[in-house]
């Protein structure tokens, strides 16, 4: 009985020792797992921060490139506008009998081709001859103010008295000062003419 009692004490001591070893192993495992998790999370976080910084640097570089491109486009647009404005004339030189006359473009009602002669019709009723072709003149007049209606007429928007429907999708214009004939806008140009009116 004494031997069995001694065996029980030995067994209890071994169980207690096993329990302590298990508890110690468990605590060490938890500490190791937490430590490894901490370092793993720290590494992932650093990687994430590095990737985010690289993306921010890339986006900043793209913004700088786009800003530079935008500035170049703005400068180019300014040059185009300046070039365009240099081509647009405010006055045109013409002839009246033997006299050279400079007329303001804003005073021109329309320019017409009649029997191979180009005439400038003014709002005040005066009419002058010019040596340029309608194509040449249309290039130096403001396209918002003047429209090439057909092969015979280049008209000022302020000279249009009325617009009538004519035939199949054509337009018939009456101009001021009064013209003996109508100015016809072909069906091919009718849509373009309407867009011009709405500018």
From TrEMBL:
One of its GO terms (molecular function) is DNA binding. It comes from the Bacteria. The keyword Membrane applies. Gene3D superfamilies: LytTr DNA-binding domain. The keyword Transmembrane applies. Keywords: Coiled coil, Membrane, Transmembrane, Transmembrane helix. This is HTH LytTR-type domain-containing protein. It comes from Flavobacterium rakeshii.
